[in-house]
Amino acid sequence: MSVYRNATIQLAGIAALLAASVGLVAAQNRPLDPVSVRADVFFYGAHVPIMLGIVDGVYKKHGIDATFAAGRGSGTTIQTVANMSDQFGFADGATLVRLAAQGLHAKQIVGILQTGSNSVMTLPDSNITKPQDLNGKTTGFAPGSATDQIFPAFAKKAGIDIASIKGLSVDPPTRDSLFLLKKIDFDIALAAAQLPILEERCACKLHVMRFSDYGLSLMSNGIVASDKIIAENPDLVRRFAAATVEAINAAIANPQRGIDAFMQYAPNTGFSRKVVTEQWNVAIGLLHTPRTKDKPVGTMDEKDWQDTIDLLVQYVNLPKDTVTPSMVFTNEFLPR
After folding, report:
1. Fewer CB within 10 A of the terminal residue: the chain, N end or C end?
2. Could you tell me the end-to-end alpha-carbon distance of the chain, in angstroms, rounded to an integer?
3. Model pTM score
4. pLDDT value of residue 1
5. Are 185 and 138 contacting, i.e. CB atoms less than 8 angstroms apart?
């Protein structure tokens, strides 16, 4: 009887493998679905998995012809996804919550940078070493940037007089240049993206004030899809999520291949291999929260989203009870 049972189990396993293979072959044999993916800002190391997925054919294996373009801030990226100018975006979770409160309909379907690296950075000779030193100083504000949108929460939490700060309206790359030229006193940025870049450019060690050190642990960047595409083409969403998770795992297993793919796909960023490597290494450390550390990559936790919503209600005047976690994230399309 046990022999019969073992044979049955083996046949069931073979049947499951055959079913998966048939599904994959079907995806490979049909015309590829063209998909436009929009980054949050300029290309940087956290985007390594998407580029690896494109260069090494992971998306094509799942029936997708993906292209990846730079963005102009998470707010703008989420809006282009919501209006279907792009099918998917790599964008910030806290920014998504704020836009959802205004009536935008989109969700993160793959969590990537689940721990935020929003920071204020200052030059070593600036004598700006603590939040209160920012009072009366100058910076550049990029309205579409995720970190800029959370800066008021950091200011309140850290006791900064935000009204005393003088600001210029700039895009993030211009702000970085002004900062290094000492035309502004401090920079506001994602440390995972810009810290390695800025430190290489100034050949110095910057002072970093991380928002998370002041109790602002917010869901950060992941793959965003509109509610419209989720409702109308769930199969595409599921295949894109599966390919992205596969690419993340491949880039973790072989970081140098991931860097190769980045340098191949985006050869004109002006970043050294050392910078991109450091960015991806930092990103690997941000792929989970304490609640998701034992879960597969991409999997998000409802309580982490609720914490983000609660912090925005408390510090950024997000209207209470306007956003719930189910409005802004889902694990439904991740591989099971």
Report:
1. N
2. 32
3. 0.85
4. 43
5. yes
Q: How many degrees, rounded to 5, is the angle at CA 304 between CA 303 and CA 310?
A: 85
DSSP 268: T
pLDDT in tens, 142-158: 876 778 878 988 998 89
Which CATH number applies to 31-115+218-328? 3.40.190.10
Q: How far is CA 329 from CA 37, 244, 283, in A?
A: 18, 16, 20
Closest CA to 146 of 324, 323, 312: 312
Same fold flag, 31-115+218-328 and 118-214: yes
**Domain assignments of the chain as residue spans, ordered by start:** 31-115+218-328, 118-214
Report the CATH superfamily, name and number, of domain 118-214.
Periplasmic binding protein-like II (3.40.190.10)
300, 108 contact by CB (below 8 A) = yes
| pLDDT one-digit tens code per residue, 171-197 | 888 999 999 999 999 999 889 999 999
What is the token pair recorded at 156? 């309140």
CB 86 within 8 A of CB 259: no
Segment 275-289 mean pLDDT = 96
3-class secondary-structure state, position 118:
strand
